[in-house]
Amino acid sequence: MRIRRLLGALAIGLTASVVATPSASEASSRVSSPTPGYWLVAGDGGVFSFNAPFYGSGVAVRPDQDACGTYPPSLDACVGIAAVPDGSGYWLLNTAAGAQAFGSADPSVSLQNCTVFNKGVALDPGFFTEMAATNSGDGYWLVTGPGYVYGCGDAQPPLGGPTSVHIDDSVGIVATADGKGYWVAGSDGGVFAFGDAGFYGSMGGKKLNAPVVGIAPTADGKGYWLVAADGGVFSFGDAAFFGSMGGKHLNAQVVGIAATPDGRGYWMAAADGGVFSFGSAPFDGSMGGKPLAQSVTGIATYARAAPG
Fold it and tell me: Which backbone phi and psi does 31 adopt, to 5 degrees?
């Protein structure tokens, strides 16, 4: 089972730099800023915005609701967040029930209008582990632990899934710059390319100190980064290495990575809400050292073009 779902509720310790809660005026100026920011999502569907608009969260509001606002209760976690490309909304991914829309994200896109790209890859499709939005923002791809890929909304035509290989735990899916392909990453460091996504290398078959937990593409789609639970970063294609937390003390394991829009930096998120920034990625705050109802499970980039 994917490592971030197994983390559970962690005791919160100090991580990266912690900033004070911004005032209302500061928060307003952050939302209007064209500089990139990010969202964190926690297992209960809580969303934390840093230099990014807040469109809502999936925290259950009724006793019979599960994380991400779905019901009846099933598993315990939102496992991912995917932003609408223009930053005007996002989806939260429930590991058992699919995605829930916020902001401009299309709420009509659901499991009822998804296509399974690779039926038969496993007897049990497993649970959803990650998602990636299409360029239009009118659809998304979902991937499950055993490697099933679902195309929802305008995430068509089918581009394929890892049917010819066995993936014990798919941990990430990200789309190419033109939205005509995607990569699927496994916890063993394997990377599988589909559509117009190029294969630029992987950590498959190589010794890892900790399992891979996420993947992020470069701006032009000609490379990608993998991040491991210990904060190690592996760069492929035109992805430059800007630093990592590998070999450094972490109060909680890393759960995801998100790239800056210019491809010259990235953020890593840890389960206790700590955020680590590298390259051109600005540090806009974190939940490190602050109380969380459930562990952070994902991070997504907020980007909006500068006015004019």
Answer: -60, -35
**CA-wise closest residue to 288 among 265, 260, 258, 268:** 268
* Residue 160 tokens, joined: 């394929």
Determine the Cα–Cα distance for residues 308 and 305; give it in Å rounded to an integer: 9
- Residue ranges of the domains in the chain? 3-302
Q: What is the mean pLDDT of residues 229-257?
A: 97
Alpha-carbon span 284 to 294, nearest angstrom? 21
Q: What is the mean pLDDT of residues 158-177?
A: 72
pLDDT band of 96, cuts 50, 70, 90: confident
What's the chain's average pLDDT?
A: 81
Distance CA 259, CA 302 (A): 10
Phi then psi for residue 293, to 5 deg, are -70, -40
- For the beta carbon of residue 23, count every other beta carbon within 10 angstroms: 9
**Contact by Cβ (8 Å): 289, 18:** yes
Task: Calculate Rg over the CA atoms of the chain.
Answer: 18
How many Å apart are CA 81 and CA 105, to the nearest integer? 12
CATH class of the 3-302 domain in this structure? mainly beta
Q: What is the pLDDT of residue 31?
A: 38
Mean pLDDT value of segment 185-204: 94
- Amino acid 250 reads L
Question: Which residues on neighbouring strands pair with residue 116, listed in sequence order?
Answer: 150
This prediction's pTM: 0.83
Of 276, 251, 253, residue with least CA distance to 265: 276
Place of tokens 């890393």: 254
Those residues whose C-beta lies under 8 Å from the C-beta of residue 180, and which sit 6 or more positions away, are 159, 195, 196
Retrieve residue 76's tokens: 């315990």
Amino acid, res. 17: S
Q: Could you report the per-residue pLDDT of 27-41, keeping only the tens digit for each?
A: 333 333 457 999 999
